[in-house]
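Dear colleagues,

As part of the handover before I leave the project, I'm documenting each prediction I ran so the next person doesn't have to rerun anything. This entry is a single chain, and its sequence is reproduced below.
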Amino acid sequence: MRSKELKSALMPVTRFLFVLGIMSIFHGTALAQSSFERSFVPKAKLVDTFWTKRDNSSGITVDHSAWSNFLATYVRTDSEGINRVAYAAVDKTGKKQLVDYIRSLEEVDVTKLNGNEQFAYWVNLYNAATVNIVVDNFPINSIRDVKNNALDISGPFNDKVVTVAGKQLTLNEIESGIVRPLWKDARLHYAFNCAAVTCPNLLKSAFTGATLNEQLDGAARDYINNPRAISFDGSKSVVSKIYFWYQGDFGGSDAAIIKHMIKFADAELAEKLRGIQKIDSFVYDWSLNAAK
């Protein structure tokens, strides 16, 4: 085996052993473990200046009706307010509808769209591609079970899954390499769905440029007022790790996160939030958001 091939083959093993070594150093130190975990979260860094191109005077709209139809058919709300996907029920017709929709988005000249249309485009593409990954690999217990090899700890988020304008993109590149650096709007975190239970809900209809702000506000309210975002164990606050991983997007501190939550919280929750000064712990359930 040539040295370049050997290096490539050993890279996942080296990464895995490195992670194990660092975790052993930090074992028993919650703050250190948390800081280490955050170091693996993708930074909001533009992946290519090409994606800055847009036409804010454009009236071009993208047809997301096929995605809305798919969502209306397969997304179901459970008793806890979690939108779950009936992956097992997706038949050949549903699968074709999903793949055809993704292909139709890949053919769109995204640079000719205005800002709101672009945002809706990227979020819908990310969410549809994520659902497609799960459908292709179902049954699984978590999207993180989709791996290139036994030592892969990142799931499919760094795999090239779509091609736009001739450029292959990963899910992480769409979210953190395009949308986060270009829009800098904390509400975007309520739009992306990573197929996990603690993730904000996958809506039952597609995002559109015309209704974007209303949909983002609604998604923020829906999530923040659900225990997946914040709950209380006695006097202790327990918050979704989304706010930990992306703390900088929410203002960079516990106080800023709490202030953000108050903006979208119902009256009772807002009153509770005003009474806390810090976040006591963060949790996240990566279980698949599959309909039961």
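Confidence is low (pLDDT under 50) at residues 1-33. The chain has three domains: 3-38, 49-222, 230-283.

All the best with the project,
I.
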